Amino acid sequence: MIRLYRDAGAxxxxxxxxxGLKLETWLRMADLxxxxxxxxxxxxxxxxxxxxxxxGEHIGDSQLIIERLTRQFEVLLDEGMSPGDRATARLVRxxxxxxxxFNLVTDRWLTDDGYAMVFKAFTPFFxxxxxxxxxxxxxxxxxxxxxxxxxxxxxxxxxxxMAIEDWEAIALVMGDRPYLLGDVPRSVDATVYAFLAQxxxxxxxxxxxxxxxxxxxxxxxxxxxxxxxxxxATLLPEP
Length: 239
Known about the structure:
There is one protein chain. This protein is α+β, with helices and mostly antiparallel strands. Helix 1 packs parallel to helix 2 (62-72) and helix 3 packs across helix 5 (128-149). The model is unreliable at 234-239 (pLDDT under 50). It contains nine helices and four strands; from the N terminus they run βαβββαααααααα. Strands 2-1-3-4 form a four-stranded mixed beta sheet, covered by helices on one side.
């Protein structure tokens, strides 16, 4: 049995991290049974969540986990993909994970209204005596990481504009197909869906959210993936 260590989630999402949601979505796509366990970053192989435990071994990094499980359990999600589609899938995934992600966390953690939302969501994750210290400490860490990466050096509206341009490019790649690369979902769809959900579901109006909601193909894709892999979850904003 695979044990998936992730955060407790918020806003109706299983995980507040796109990487946690990506990995859980992929496990459902691959039809691999798993158990949810409470994550402790101090025990994570890379110091980050999510991670898994498989036969007593702890494995970190969502993409390395997917590649390991694909080999070990002979998962066929990407069977028959052309070299061109594999290259496109990699470029889309890397764009979201290495660029759009930092624009997302900058908008979520470093703006006043975004931080108000995450502070409320993260409050249950920490004991009362430490939450007023711990959550601002997370914010400082995010600020330092975003500044080092580059997204945090820009005005918030500039960072958001960069993310919107990423999504416009992804929407062009998808076109009118039901999934990113065609009529069947591939591993990359776990990433695309997870990042979309992190923007569309939380109960906060933002320029990034409005931009994605204005693209019917992306909104329909999000709903399609939700209905297929999380049919028992509402994934709706909290009232």
